[in-house]
Amino acid sequence: MPHPLVDQLRFTRAEWLRAFEGVTPAEAEQTLGSMNSMAWLVGHLAWHEQISWLERAQGRTLEPAVARFGFGEPGSTPALDEAWRAWRAITAAADPYLDTLTSEGLLAHWEVKGAAHRESIGTTLRRLTYHYWFHLGESQAIRQLLGHTDLPVFVGNINRAPYRPEGAL
């Protein structure tokens, strides 16, 4: 059984997918003012998943092109299907690693550039989950600016990932 924090990340990913229901590629590829496009948001979270669960955790890079969506990189607008393809490939490749995480393992730190990373693996897991929620809100603001109505109600079916104490692993 996955760690409860992994369950929460997976629930959040499902909410991320739900946030894009009814969005066309043309809409997702629009840039409104200084906001990033929704397609960029997908690429950005693919980058964050890859740097965490593939590069730092496993020493491998599956989708090198997502580096252009990293923190501090110049803005760009990818094709939505390209961003989703990378996101799906990266999250699928990350899942077997995520399934190995334990409470003890979440306290560990990866080695990055010869030194312990400043955040524990557990803190990184929480940061990524919260990062999704930040961009979930942004995606819904973009949808409102695009004129979408009847947006998803957040948080959705939380019973898919109910609270369970770590001792119940």
Note down, in words, how this protein is organized.
By secondary structure, the chain is mainly alpha-helical. It has one domain: Four Helix Bundle (Hemerythrin (Met), subunit A) (Up-down Bundle), CATH 1.20.120.450. The chain has 5 helices and 2 strands, in the order H-H-H-H-E-E-H. Helix 3 (38-58) runs parallel beside helix 4. The mean pLDDT is 93.
Q: What is the second-level CATH architecture?
A: Up-down Bundle
Largest sheet: 2 strands, antiparallel
Number of domains: 1
C-alpha end-to-end distance? 7 Å
Structural class: mainly alpha
> How many DSSP helices?
5
The unreliable regions are: none
Assign a percent range to the helix content.
Answer: 40-55%
Give the overall shape, derived from the CA principal axes: globular
Task: Provide the CATH top-level class.
Answer: Mainly Alpha
User: Rg from C-alpha positions?
Assistant: 16 Å
User: How do the strands of the widest beta sheet line up side by side?
Assistant: 1-2
Please identify which CATH superfamily we are dealing with: dinb family like domain
Beta-strand proportion: under 5%
List the secondary-structure elements in sequence, H or E.
Answer: HHHHEEH
How would you state the average pLDDT, rounded? 93
CATH-defined fold name: Four Helix Bundle (Hemerythrin (Met), subunit A)
Task: Give the tally of β-strands.
Answer: 2
